[in-house]
Automatic annotation (TrEMBL):
<feature type="binding site">
    <location>
        <position position="59"/>
    </location>
    <ligand>
        <name>substrate</name>
    </ligand>
</feature>
<comment type="similarity">
    <text>Belongs to the diaminopimelate epimerase family.</text>
</comment>
<feature type="binding site">
    <location>
        <position position="6"/>
    </location>
    <ligand>
        <name>substrate</name>
    </ligand>
</feature>
<feature type="binding site">
    <location>
        <begin position="195"/>
        <end position="196"/>
    </location>
    <ligand>
        <name>substrate</name>
    </ligand>
</feature>
<feature type="site" description="Could be important to modulate the pK values of the two catalytic cysteine residues">
    <location>
        <position position="144"/>
    </location>
</feature>
<dbReference type="InterPro" id="IPR018510">
    <property type="entry name" value="DAP_epimerase_AS"/>
</dbReference>
<keyword id="KW-0413">Isomerase</keyword>
<feature type="binding site">
    <location>
        <begin position="69"/>
        <end position="70"/>
    </location>
    <ligand>
        <name>substrate</name>
    </ligand>
</feature>
<keyword id="KW-0028">Amino-acid biosynthesis</keyword>
<dbReference type="InterPro" id="IPR001653">
    <property type="entry name" value="DAP_epimerase_DapF"/>
</dbReference>
<feature type="active site" description="Proton donor">
    <location>
        <position position="68"/>
    </location>
</feature>
<feature type="binding site">
    <location>
        <position position="177"/>
    </location>
    <ligand>
        <name>substrate</name>
    </ligand>
</feature>
<protein>
    <recommendedName>
        <fullName>Diaminopimelate epimerase</fullName>
        <ecNumber>5.1.1.7</ecNumber>
    </recommendedName>
</protein>
<feature type="active site">
    <location>
        <position position="68"/>
    </location>
</feature>
<feature type="site" description="Could be important to modulate the pK values of the two catalytic cysteine residues">
    <location>
        <position position="195"/>
    </location>
</feature>
<feature type="binding site">
    <location>
        <begin position="206"/>
        <end position="207"/>
    </location>
    <ligand>
        <name>substrate</name>
    </ligand>
</feature>
<dbReference type="GO" id="GO:0009089">
    <property type="term" value="P:lysine biosynthetic process via diaminopimelate"/>
</dbReference>
Length: 264
């Protein structure tokens, strides 16, 4: 499946009962785009006594991820087909995520709120200081560094080097997903993400888009509760809910697509 081009292999582990110790190796094998199926990550759907289902999420390099916004949207649709549940509470390593089926392809999820926030994070690269926002969603948090940057007019080789430098920067002890964005209107952005664990640019990033929206609101660069993000893989929408002018809820909305079913 994919959510705006962010693609995943999904396995019904309620039926398959694969041992967790084997998850990393399976992730590396199946996500290999040359020798396997090919994906940004893999999701094992398991049962859990505290929630409707549990999400075991692994990146393509075999590392375990705290959570993945686009992955949760795909998992919600997958669970609807398997379990016929239009609304779910999904247990992830970053906390419980609530999901809702809007229609056959569109799903809405409640992202975890920020646990760590730095809206004035400055990093020096080749003698230039770049200031962005470091945000972790959930606890333990998914790390993101959001930077307003003209990525569309930057040489691709230099963009890779810059993204890799930021992703591994010592200011980020867990590493970070790098979310470049460019404002194209009052509540619209173009966005490009370099993902930790994939170690490459991906076609979209759900949690990253949520962090971009939070960063823009905190820095008073948007005046609406809605942000529309154009990514290389499609369009994502973030809706913010407020309480006493503070962010209470962050919703991610977007399309999901089933590419194929198969046996491996």
């Amino acid at each position: 499946m994919h959510g705006c081009g962010n693609d995943f292999v999904l396995i019904d582990n309620i039926s398959e009962k694969i041992k967790e110790v084997d998850f990393p190796a399976i992730a590396k094998n199946l996500c290999d785009r040359k020798k396997g199926i090919g994906a940004d990550g893999i999701i094992f759907m398991d049962i859990d006594s505290t929630c409707d289902i549990k999400m075991n999420f692994y990146n393509s390099d075999g590392s375990r991820g705290e959570m993945c916004g686009n992955g949760v949207r795909c998992l919600a649709r997958f669970a609807y087909h398997v379990l016929n549940l239009p609304k779910l509470n999904i247990l992830t390593d970053a906390g419980i995520v609530k999901t809702e089926r809007i229609d056959e392809t569109k799903y809405k999820i409640l992202l975890n709120n920020p646990s760590i926030e730095d809206y004035n994070c400055s990093i020096n690269y080749k003698g230039v200081n770049y200031t962005g926002s470091y945000i972790e969603l959930g606890e333990p948090g998914i790390p993101h560094f959001c930077l307003e940057f003209d990525f569309e007019n930057t040489n691709i080789d230099e963009l890779y080097k810059f993204a890799e430098f930021l992703r591994h920067n010592s200011k980020f002890p867990k590493g970070a997903n790098i979310n470049f964005f460019k404002l194209t209107g009052q509540n619209n952005v173009d966005e490009l993400t370099y993902e930790r664990g994939v170690e490459d640019f991906t076609l979209s990033c759900g949690t990253g888009t949520g962090c971009v929206a939070v960063s823009l609101f905190k820095n008073k660069l948007i005046n609406s509760n809605t942000l529309n993000a154009k990514t290389p893989g499609g369009d994502l929408t973030i809706e913010l809910e407020f309480k006493s002018n503070n962010i209470k809820n962050i919703y991610l909305i977007g399309e999901t697509e089933i590419v194929f079913h198969g046996n491996y």
